[in-house]
Amino acid sequence: MDNVIEKKDRIVISVDAMGGDHGVSVIVDGLQKASLRHQNLEFLIHGNKNHILEHLEKKPKLHAISTIVNCRTTIEMEEKPSVAIRNGKDSSMWSALAELSNGKANIAVSCGNTGALMAMAMLQLRKAPGINRPAIAVLWPARNSRGFNIVLDAGADIKADADDLLQYALMGVAYARDGFDIQKPKVGLLNVGTEIHKGRNELHEASLNIAANQQSNGFEFVGYLEGSDIPSGKADVIVTDGFTGNVALKTGEGTASLIRELLKESLSQSIASRLGAILSISSLKQLNKKIDPRNVNGGIFLGLNGIVIKSHGGADAIGVAAAINLAHQLEILGFSRKLTSKFNRYS
Amino acid sequence: MDNVIEKKDRIVISVDAMGGDHGVSVIVDGLQKASLRHQNLEFLIHGNKNHILEHLEKKPKLHAISTIVNCRTTIEMEEKPSVAIRNGKDSSMWSALAELSNGKANIAVSCGNTGALMAMAMLQLRKAPGINRPAIAVLWPARNSRGFNIVLDAGADIKADADDLLQYALMGVAYARDGFDIQKPKVGLLNVGTEIHKGRNELHEASLNIAANQQSNGFEFVGYLEGSDIPSGKADVIVTDGFTGNVALKTGEGTASLIRELLKESLSQSIASRLGAILSISSLKQLNKKIDPRNVNGGIFLGLNGIVIKSHGGADAIGVAAAINLAHQLEILGFSRKLTSKFNRYS
Fold first, then answer.
1. Are A140 and A154 in contact (CB under 8 A)?
2. Beta carbons of A284 and B266 less than 8 Å apart
3. b/e code A218-254 from CB counts within 10 Å (16+ = b)
């Protein structure tokens, strides 16, 4: 019943329009796509007013549900987080987070510099009670009916000790349950082998701690997983430190794009294979959708007092729309409210 | 001229026949495949004599170039390296390495437990002069004319400091040059971003050390790479610690096999796509060959006084043959002799 009422309510998303690799137009196109799908969205769009207006004026319906917040500067992709915090208070990124922090928006979305976004989010939203290191959770294409698994940390921090890994497990479980309705999530810990003696000391300690928490927190710990298990049905939530998670994520993306390119080349090699490709086109398109990282775009920052979604820097309109769709779903399910109360329970 | 003479010489490969997931028959089938391709191979096959004979007797030509070394025990895949060393002196793995160590074989190959194999190899062959941590180098399918890049460490050790990473770079360069004739290898260091401030401290230190060695050692350091760059043309040699390398490798394999399965499913979905798949079959087979990890099977242990090739535990006959082919190529190029002299120069 809750959901029905909430669906009527408006959901305000605070969007950093300047962050992506492809400029404002792609962001506006993405907002347009998402707004056609969901009736109750409103946008606070942060960035250079003239640039945003130029694209927004062509889309009167989107324009009508959007408010532009003019910002003088943009955080560059290469900017160090410490520098961004010091000099970036008049940036679109800072402004997008400020509207979340002051309660005018439900969720913030940015395609910008991940490190700067996390640093600014920690400063403005503060860590949730009981959380030491916030984490970035990503949705990873997987071989299950849902089509994805949750992996964290995908790069919020370059290290994690045993306690951090336990917190990641608990945050991942909350995300799986309250964001995607997975009632008893299976949790795995990423390692170099599944045997109990494998890997680093902090992993041994973390595995004991996570196992000890499974009953009281309503999840199942499936033990160590290897990289090849990430897209499998063995776990719903895969826990790792941010260095390993980031490398794994990008390695998976690189492998998928290598195969996509090789497939395209192979199918254009001969007349027979070109004809074959035409006959298979709808199946191949479906496949492409399943393995296209744009469709599961949206890393989420967990462990803060508020939900920030980091869209891929290179996201196109489909990718931006996917991030907005994720934001919408999380609000519909009341995820941020539930998550905050969960953290309070853990602490 | 050197190569011509060596081609006439026999190359003796010491094979642990008991290690793989699929038993002796797959190993013998792999040796058969490789022996049909190369005329100058001889095998020392270590394991249960009756099991080996059972399969070898069906292949008289292979039998004629093989000597069986009967071994009473097998190292299990889950065995801890420390236990394997203590109790495994009468195992096929130990025996295969002993024949390399005593000079009766040119190269040793095993599909068995990686940790045990490395521990035994270190004990029997000893580290090469100047080497602190040996590494496992793997060939990674890549988008270049060669079809692969070299990645190390893929899991010999779970940690590496800045000095170790420099040694990995130098070993990788020697492998690229003397094993694959890449005259001026490009070397990259795996990190979570390409910006100079990204990642852990040991990576910052290692990047300075590697850069300082590029001129004197005839390679080009291209700086930090991300996971998505591993299959790219940006580098020939990608350096990382064994934990990260192992997770990345298995993540890449998992992604590739997910996509292969989804592709197969997609193409059998409708009559049109099934017909399309038939028309495209030769192109798809070619693609499969390019992305099939079996065709680049064979991790090599670098940094020891002798060359050990670790074949994938799950390798089938094609995979085993690929590992033997790699061993053959390395001997033809005189890799192990050159490599040992290289290490002496570094030390």
1. no
2. yes
3. ebebbbbbbbbbbbbebbbbbbbbbbbbbbbbbbbbb
Shortest distance between the Cα of B168 and any Cα of chain A, in A, equals 18
Which amino acid, one-letter code, is at A274?
A: R
pLDDT in tens, A159-184: 899 999 999 999 999 999 988 999 99
DSSP result, B189-258? EE-S-SSTT-S-HHHHHHHHHHHHHTTTTT-EEEEEE-GGGTTSSS-SEEE--HHHHHHHHHHHHHHHHH
Quick check: A272 and B252 CB within 8 A? no
Taking 70 as the pLDDT cut, the residues of chain B under it are 1-8, 288, 290-296, 339-347
- Minimal CA separation from B127 to chain A, in Å: 22
Distance CA A198, CA B114 (A): 12
- Reported as type and span, the H/E element at residue B3 is helix B2-8
DSSP string, B116-134: HHHHHHHHHH-BPTT-SS-
Interface test with B, best of A79, A192, A234, A296 (most B CBs within 10 A): A192
Give the minimum alpha-carbon distance from A90 to chain B in angstroms, rounded to a whole number.
24
Length of chain A: 347
Element (H, E) at A300: strand A299-302
Q: A197 touching B, CB under 8 A?
A: yes
CB contact under 8 A, B270 and A283: yes
> Which of A:281-310 have CB within 8 Å of B?
281-284, 286-287, 290-291
Which residue in the set A142, A190, A282 is minimally distant from B247, CB to CB?
A: A190
Name the token pair of A216. 């009281």
Q: Would you list the DSSP string of A49-65? A: HHHHHHHHTT-HHHHHT
Residue A6 has pLDDT above 80, yes or no: no
What pLDDT band is residue A105 in, cutting at 50, 70 and 90?
A: very high
In chain A, positions 17-76, which contact chain B (CB-CB < 8 Å)? none
Q: What is the pTM of this model?
A: 0.88
Name the B residues in 132-151 with CB < 8 Å from any A CB.
141-143
- The A residues from 76 to 105 touching B (CB cutoff 8 Å) are 78, 80
* CA atoms in the 13 A half-sphere facing the CB of A280: 30
Half-sphere exposure of B75 (CA within 13 A, CB side): 35
DSSP code for B321:
H
- Helix, strand, coil fractions of chain B, as percent rounded to 5: 50, 15, 30
Length of chain B: 347
Write the ipTM: 0.85
Pairing mode of beta strands B135-141, B148-152: antiparallel
Q: Are strands A299-302 and A307-310 parallel, antiparallel or unpaired?
A: antiparallel
